[in-house]
Design a protein that fits this description.
alpha/beta; six-stranded parallel sheet; four-stranded antiparallel sheet; 11 helices; binds adenosine monophosphate
């Protein structure tokens, strides 16, 4: 089938748990790659889907804007929703199934459970978005139980989230391989994000400075600048580049982001930042 024909088809979708289960039950003894998303798909999401497609017999993508990970003053209502375009993109990637549950299917009346990875959910982004990581841990656990994937794909763009999922899967002994996929960027370095469409023209022009500052900061970290000095330098540099406020600019150990990076320790690090342009929060990270 040529690409044009494929992209004019919609991907196979289910919205009900019973329909998901009846598909899943036909795939016993097959590898199932799962890509959880909130939709408004872009090349970053598609990189995860392609990774899954390379390895797994079946690929399942979920689209669910998870209310539990949004705070009361955050963008749950305005979060971009574009299901038709998403389904075209997923059909072109030859996805086997797209699960698009409604809120009641994910959180039925009386739902009480909250999952929290305690060492990771109060640091970095967790300090600014207190409900965020437990909201994600809860929905991902629930989706894992429903989809029962053998492999699950997460972007390193959301580095703290990826680390949290790895910890969650290890702690609960969930039988799934978690694969972290490299960050996909625009040609000017801006990490792709569904929220980039909120940026106005002026802010979009400033946005690549985040990646540039992270790259320069990683050089400084390797050259021995302390995490504290690096944080101060990162804040000043981003503010000079027009970012209104900087939530954090943190050099941490790559395998343990609760601990500051020091070059003397001879371990790999990750420089992670979250900052604001207007009402849009950008998160990004680079290797040290
Ligand atoms: P979201 O729809 O924002 O919840 O993202 C769904 C998945 O796509 C998460 O695992 C993200 O980390 C991943 N993702 C989002 N943007 C990118 C990107 N630019 N590069 C790689 N992965 C990404």
């Amino acid at each position: 089938m040529n690409l044009q024909a494929a992209s004019s088809l919609k991907a196979n979708t289910v919205t009900k748990i019973e329909d998901l289960e009846s598909c899943r039950n036909q795939w016993q003894n097959q590898t199932i790659g799962f890509v959880p998303t909130m939709g408004a798909l872009h090349e970053g999401h598609l990189a995860l889907v392609r990774e899954a497609r390379k390895t797994c017999d079946r690929v399942v993508v979920s689209i669910f804007v998870n209310p539990k990970q949004f705070g009361p003053n955050e963008d749950l209502v305005t979060y971009p929703r574009m299901i038709d375009a998403d389904l075209d993109l997923l059909a072109a990637e030859n996805v086997d199934l797209v699960f698009i549950p409604d809120e009641k299917s994910v959180y039925p009346d009386g739902f009480q459970t909250k999952i929290s990875v305690v060492n990771l959910d109060t640091i970095l982004t967790g300090q600014f978005r207190p409900q965020f990581f437990s909201g994600i841990a809860t929905v991902v656990t629930r989706l894992f139980m429903l989809v029962r994937p053998t492999h699950a794909y997460f972007g390193k763009k959301d580095y703290q989230q990826w680390q949290m999922i790895c910890q969650l899967v290890a702690d609960l002994h969930i039988p799934v391989d978690v694969i972290g996929v490299p960050i996909v960027r625009e040609s000017d370095g801006l990490a792709l994000s569904s929220r980039n469409m909120y940026l106005n023209e002026q802010d979009r022009a400033k946005a690549p400075a985040l990646y540039e500052t992270l790259l320069a900061g990683a050089d400084k970290a390797r050259a021995g600048m302390s995490a504290k000095d690096l944080e101060d330098w990162g804040r000043e540099t981003l503010q000079a580049a027009g970012f209104e406020s900087v939530d954090y600019f943190a050099a941490r150990l790559a395998e343990d982001i609760t601990t500051n990076y020091t070059c003397a320790a001879n371990q790999s690090g990750r420089l992670i930042a979250a900052t604001w342009l207007g009402t849009t929060r950008l998160v990004d990270n680079v290797e040290i």
